[in-house]
């Protein structure tokens, strides 16, 4: 119910202000509920943030726990024309070879011409494996010939290339046809004539005609291992990349080389270190956030001198405190009786961790397998602890978030109920004051009538 604008009509009271003042008192419980929603949402936000940090730690720890997490290698080449990269399955070792050929795509061009033929005639594309693709240009023009070849999707691309002018001023063009991929298997021949003509031997090889040429043949890349020995072995590839020279190693060549090129695979100590240090970094990120949100800060007003103390939103929260303690314990628990500090994961007096790269590198150099075993054990312990906190279904922090979200939903339901209740209360107050003004107005009218009657009696007397 809206205000009827009855302020001061009879009583002279500011009814609107009176009602607003009463409603301010009435809505105190709802205001407290809204404040509670704000603080709970802030708490939920902090829980979600730290939960995300625990999930990141769990992901890194799970990867680090793999038995080959530090089996990381790097490849070097003795020539700038040969590059190599490592992947899964790589191991230390080396291989030498000469680069005999690089992969190429076939390119053929016709003689210069104004049109392809006087009329539409078939063409046949023949692949090295004997596959035949018969083409049917719409007309004898070069444009239709190019279109027919390209629409066939036969692994080649045709292009009309400008080639000067004839004596009479007519513009001339060459038909250029190129393989879409490198390698001998992607070569082709182009014949004027149908597939039957090709079989009969009566079709015309386009690129053997006067003025035409094969600009480049389709070739495989080739490298030879153990050049000059009885064990010499040539390996080919349709591209300039070789994936099988060494397990887990990809080699790419760019130019030929008569001198042997050596590719060496070695353990990548820097990448291995990043696996271990990444574990410490992920825990440090959680520890830093937790410290920031459990601290107590004091602020003094420069004008009033009043000191205000504010507690971190996670201060006193048992769920996050327990998760921090569990992960910290997992980071420092010995593996088969060996402390994580022997591979550089060192706990500090304040419960945080530091990574000593010198200790790690010495351990890795002295005993790669033992270092891997300790790291895998520590990482597995950490992964278990981090997952217990952040698992999307059963994690303790995840569960806490869900519970707090339920609290907020309940609070909002109460706030909505209070909104309805306050609306009804305001309407009741407005009706009461309206009735008051109406009653006063009636009394005033009666008073005026009595006064007028008394005045009449006095006059008559």
What this model shows, in words?
- Helix 2 runs antiparallel to helix 8.
- It is built from nine helices and 20 strands.
- The strands form six sheets. The chain has a five-stranded antiparallel β-sheet with strand order 1-16-3-12-13.
- The two termini are 52 Å apart.
- Helix content is 44%, strand content 23%.
- Strand 12 and strand 13 form a beta hairpin.
- The protein folds into three domains: 263 residues, no CATH class; 77 residues, no CATH class; 110 residues, no CATH class.
Q: Give the overall form.
A: flat
Helix content: 40-55%
Q: What fraction of the residues are assigned to beta strands by DSSP? A: 15-25%
Mean pLDDT reading: 91
Q: Please summarize the sheet with the most strands.
A: 5 strands, antiparallel
Count of alpha/pi helices? 9
Structural class: alpha+beta
């Amino acid at each position: 119910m809206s205000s009827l604008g009855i302020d001061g009509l009879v009583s002279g009271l500011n009814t609107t202000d009176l009602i607003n003042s009463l409603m301010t008192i009435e809505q105190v419980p709802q205001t407290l509920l809204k404040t509670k929603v704000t603080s709970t949402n802030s708490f939920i936000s902090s829980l979600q943030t730290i939960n995300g940090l625990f999930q990141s730690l769990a992901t890194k720890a799970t990867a680090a726990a793999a038995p080959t997490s530090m089996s990381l290698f790097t490849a070097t080449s003795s020539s700038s024309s040969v590059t190599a990269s490592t992947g899964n399955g790589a191991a230390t070792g080396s291989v030498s070879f000469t680069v005999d050929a690089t992969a190429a795509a076939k390119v053929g061009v016709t003689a210069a011409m104004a049109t392809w033929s006087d009329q539409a005639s078939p063409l046949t594309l023949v692949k090295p494996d004997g596959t035949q693709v018969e083409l049917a240009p719409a007309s004898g023009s070069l444009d239709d010939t190019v279109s027919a070849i390209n629409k066939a999707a036969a692994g080649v691309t045709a292009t009309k290339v400008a080639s000067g002018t004839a004596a009479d001023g007519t513009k001339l063009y060459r038909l250029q046809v190129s393989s879409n991929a490198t390698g001998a298997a992607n070569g082709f021949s182009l014949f004027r004539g149908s597939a039957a003509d090709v079989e009969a031997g009566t079709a015309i090889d386009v690129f053997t005609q006067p003025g035409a040429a094969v600009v480049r043949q389709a070739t495989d890349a080739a490298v030879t291992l153990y050049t000059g020995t009885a064990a010499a072995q040539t390996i080919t590839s349709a591209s300039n990349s070789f994936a099988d020279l060494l397990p887990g190693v990809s080699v790419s060549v760019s130019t030929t080389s008569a001198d042997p090129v050596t590719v060496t695979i070695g353990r990548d100590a820097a990448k291995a270190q990043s696996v271990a240090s990444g574990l410490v970094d992920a825990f440090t990120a959680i520890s830093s956030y937790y410290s920031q949100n459990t601290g107590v800060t004091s602020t003094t007003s420069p004008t009033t001198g009043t000191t205000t103390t504010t507690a971190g939103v996670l201060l006193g929260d048992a769920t996050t405190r327990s998760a921090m303690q569990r992960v910290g314990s997992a980071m420092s628990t010995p593996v088969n009786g060996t402390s994580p500090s022997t591979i550089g994961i060192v706990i500090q007096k304040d419960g945080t961790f530091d990574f000593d790269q010198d200790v790690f590198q010495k351990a890795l150099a002295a005993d790669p397998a033992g270092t891997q075993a300790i790291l895998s054990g520590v990482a597995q312990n950490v992964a278990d602890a981090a997952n217990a906190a952040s698992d999307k279904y059963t994690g303790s922090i995840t569960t806490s978030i869900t519970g707090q979200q339920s609290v907020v939903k309940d609070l909002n339901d109460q706030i909505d109920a209070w909104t309805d209740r306050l609306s009804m209360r305001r309407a009741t107050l407005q009706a009461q004051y309206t009735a008051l003004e109406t009653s006063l107005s009636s009394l005033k009218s009666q008073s005026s009538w009595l006064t007028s009657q008394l005045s009449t009696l006095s006059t008559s007397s």
